[in-house]
From TrEMBL:
SMART domains: CLECT
Official protein name in the record: C-type lectin domain-containing protein
Annotated coiled-coil segments of the chain: none
InterPro entries named among the record's database cross-references: C-type_lectin-like (IPR001304), C-type_lectin-like/link_sf (IPR016186), C-type_lectin/snaclec_domain (IPR050111), CTDL_fold (IPR016187)
Amino acid sequence: MKSDTAEVQSNRMLLVKETCKVKGLLKLKKKPQLFVPIKKIEETEVNWFEASAICRTMNGSLASIENERIMEAIDQHLAPEKPADPWWWLSGNDLASEGNFVWANTGQPMNYTLWSTGQPNHFKDNEHCVNLWVSGGLFTMNDLDCKRHNFFICERDY
């Protein structure tokens, strides 16, 4: 049984290594975190649940932006991506309780937020997951249907 588990883990990691490319690593010094923005090869995007699973295979989780320092670092790091306007999944969601956004990796409330104007809006009663998008020249937060396909940012300790 143990070897089956190891084989499954090995296959998952192989899949991640073959199908994903890292858009540069971002290391923060004050809190030992490594943020890994990921785009799938050939610009293929994944839904929030798939992104979360991929981050777990890398011993991490979808990223949580818990303060302004982290938000500014990610914004600067991803600045070259702004003209292309990609959207990036974060761990934030209100899947358990409508309107009560938490970080999935900690279960803690999203006390720091940088919502876009008018967000979160729970459009068509179907937006429960948080993504970054460009609004007014800056990356800001938005609630979005978890089944939409985006790029994503993983986080892990180092």
